Amino acid sequence: MTDEARRGSEAIAPAGKLLLRVDAVVRRFGEVTAVDHLSLDIGTGEFFALLGPSGCGKTTLLRMLGGFETPDGGRILLDGQDISGVPPHRRPVNMMFQNYALFPHLSVRDNIAFGLRRAGLPRAEIEARVTEMLALVSLEGMEKRKPEQLSGGQRQRVALARALARRPRLLLLDEPMAALDKKLRENTQAELMRLQRQLGMTFIIVTHDQEEAMMMADRIGVMNAGRLQQVATPRQLYEAPNSRWIAEFVGGINIIDGEVESRGGGRMTVATQAAGRVTAATPLQALTTDRVCVAIRPEKIRLSSGAAAPDAGDAVGTNRMEGVIAGVSYLGGQTRYQVRLDHGALMHASVANTVRREAETFDMAQRVAACFAPDDCMVLDR
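Above: the chain sequence. Below: its structure as C-alpha cells.
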C-alpha cells in the first residue's frame, strides 16, 4: 500500500462546497431499523455512490433524500435548509427510478415535458428545455415515439432527460443500469459520467455493482445494516479499507489470520498457521489486539516456477510461499490462479495477460512460488 493510499484513507470529506448534509438520520419499518443514525456530507458537483449488499438500507436512504420516505429522526439539509418534511415535488431534487416509470401513452417529448408542465412553466420555456434535453441525451428525431417503440437504453435516456429537465440541484439514481446488458451498461456509465461533468450537477447513485461504483464515483459510501462502514475514494477504499469487512466486500482479497510476532523498522511479522510467517508494513491505523489478519489483493501476488530462486534484491521476494496450482480461470485480460500453499491456505492470484502469448503460464498441479511485498499487505483487526 502506498503512503498516498494510507493518508487518503482518512480523507473522506467532499472536495467541493458542501451541498447536502445527512445528520443522524433514522428510518424504521416496524421493528426493523433500515437506516440507523446515519450521517454523511456530499459536495456540490460530486458524483457519489452508495454501495452495499441487498437490504443494507441504501435505497431507503435515497428515497428519504428524494422525499418518498420520511425520516423517523435526524435531519436532511440541502444548502443548509432542512428538507426532511418537504414533499418530493417541492424540493430541488429529482429521482430516476430503476424501472424508469415512463408513461406508456405519452410520447418521448411529452414524457420529458411532464414535470415541467406540472411545475407551470410557460409553453415556450417547456419547448426550449425539452429540445435541450433531447439533444443532451442524443434522442433528436425520436420525440414522437412511444416508450414501447424504444430500446432499453433509449427508454433509460428518456427517463434521464425527464429527471434533468427541471434542473434539480441533486439527481438521485436508483440502480439505473440493473436491466441493461454488459455492453449497453458500459456505454451508459460513460454517458452518465459525461453528462454529470458537463452539467456540473451532483449525482448520487445507488448500486450493488462494485465495478460500476468504482468506475463512476468520486467517492463511495459502503453501507451495511443501515450504517456507513466507510466513505472514501475508489482507490482509497480498495487500497486502504478500514476494516476486515470492507476488505472482504470490496474486490477480491486473500485473508490470512494470524498473530503479531514482532514489530520494528516500519515492518511487522505475523505468524500464521495457513501461510507461515508473513512480513507486512506496519499499518498507520491502531490495532486493538495482536490477533490480526493479513489481506493481500490477488493482483499483488507474483507467481513463478517453484524451482526458481527468489531475487534477494527484489522487495517482492520478501514473502515467498510455495504450493501447487489448484485452479486456473482464463478471463481474457487476466488469468486467475488458485494456489494451495504447503501450509494449507488457498491463495488467489491474478496475472495480467499483457502479451498475446504469455511468457510463462501455469498448469493444474504445477508447483509454484507465490511472492508479494510487505507494502502490499494490509494488516487489519480480526
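The CA atoms of residues 30 and 72 lie 11 Å apart.
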